[in-house]
Amino acid sequence: MDDIFEVLSNFNFSGSYESHIPYGSGHINSTFLVTYKDNGAEKKYIVQKINKNVFSDVGKLMNNIFGVTSYLKEKIKASGGDENRETLNFIKTLDGKKYYTDRNGGLYRAYTFVSDSVSYNGVESAELFKQSGIAFGKFQRLLADFPADSLYETLPEFHNTKYRYETEFIPALEKNIVGRNDSCLEQIKFVKDRADYCSRFTDLVKAGKLPLRVTHNDTKLNNVLFDKNTNKAICVIDLDTVMPGLALYDFGDSIRFGANTAAEDEADLSKVGINLEYFRAYAEGFLSQAGESLNAAEKENLAFSALLMTFECGMRFLTDYINDDTYFKIAYPRHNLVRAKNQFALVADMEKHMDEMENIIKSL
Ligand code: ADP
Ligand code: GN1
Ligand code: MG
Predict the structure, then answer these.
(1) Contact partners, residue 24, CB within 8 Å, separation at least 6
(2) Could you tell me the distance, in angstroms and rounded to a whole number, from the CA of residue 14 to the centre of ligand 2?
(3) Which residues have a Cβ under 8 Å from the Cβ of 111 and sit 6 or more positions away?
(4) Cα-flanking dihedrals φ and ψ of residue 171, to 5°?
(5) Residue 125: what pLDDT?
């Protein structure tokens, strides 16, 4: 068991400890909200245990995030924004390091809690979702001139759907390490029937039609913080996967999560579908910030990117289920299979509505 007090006492927090509680609902890291009191004033921090199973070189990962946030701070200041709220602010360890290694080898980082902020696990209104589109579109725009070659690739092939299929999904089926294939034959078939989707973007990249940009790559709604009073998007967080990628990954992954009429792990598939009003709202927000820089091939593939990112995520959940749940955190035994079924139901609904999705993009 990690000793959280050992961890906390090694960060440069102000004041004295009051409390800590598990926080948020990310699938990868373990997050705590920590409160200190400094001369009567409450100071809130986020402390995170970084998932070493997922991220193999945390030193390089943290250098990426410091590089990106320092760059963003300058941009935000230059445009008259509040750099203490509009990007992540890290707290270093007492000995000046970017993360702390505890006596069990656990790796922890800390940042200030963005004041008066909330995150959402589901879209509550089209306007809220549009706000997240603005935030991710702006993130991409602000990083347009960031030196991409200074970034370490934290998770190589992260959104390479072809790689996910050939090098992860198919071998998992062949190994079938805990004998789960028989319990998901329909889902396996669903993926195999759509194998040709997987190389759509990799082919366009090879042909020089889709440019690499600095992208976020994990554009879930709960990776944006909103002002709790105005519900305006303030800050993009969860920067572990900021890497060279496609604008389409960021657009598609947001739709996957936020324009689903149900939660990502809703087991009642009759509730799952694409909400076209939300799709439009997000597209409006995202394109208002990043639209001008997109080329023709990017624009033509926006609607399809939503389908592909949903398909890819479903395939990753299914692969993890078959591999005995070693990657995503789960809350109950078949959680990853439920998530996969949900994502495939959304893919099937998007297939039915692809013409409408295309028309919405054209109308914008
Ligand atoms: P994970 O990689 O596990 O998804 P995140 O970095 O997204 O971890 O953090 C998990 C949750 O913690 C977020 O969804 C958000 O609710 C909250 N959170 C993270 N950082 C901050 C912060 N600086 N200020 C306020 N809330 C935060
Ligand atoms: C993970 O860390 P979190 O919960 O924001 C995952 C994403 C998936 C998402 C599915 C580093 O995101 O790729 O799309 O779960 N992040 C990583 O909900 O694998
Ligand atoms: Mg997250």
Answers:
(1) 31, 119, 222
(2) 32
(3) 45, 46, 88, 89, 90, 91
(4) -60, -35
(5) 96
| pLDDT for 2 | 84
For residues 245 and 159, the answer to whether their CB atoms sit within 8 Å is yes
Position 321 pLDDT exceeds 80: yes
Confidence at residue 1, expressed as pLDDT on a 0 to 100 scale: 74
pLDDT at 43: 96
**pLDDT score, position 174:** 98
Side chain identity, residue 211: P
Q: Which residues line ligand 1 (CB under 6 A)?
A: 23-24, 26, 28-29, 31, 46, 88, 111, 113-114, 117, 119, 222-223, 225, 237-238
The pLDDT of residue 227 is above 80: yes
Is residue 195 classed as helix, strand or coil in its secondary structure? helix
Instruction: Sort residue 114 into left (φ over 0), alpha (ψ -120 to 50) or beta.
Output: beta
List beta partners, residue 244: 214
Nearest CA to ligand 1 atom 11: 24
Q: Which residues are CB-neighbours of 301 under 8 A, at least 6 positions away?
A: 200, 201, 204, 210, 248
pLDDT reading at 233 higher than 90: yes
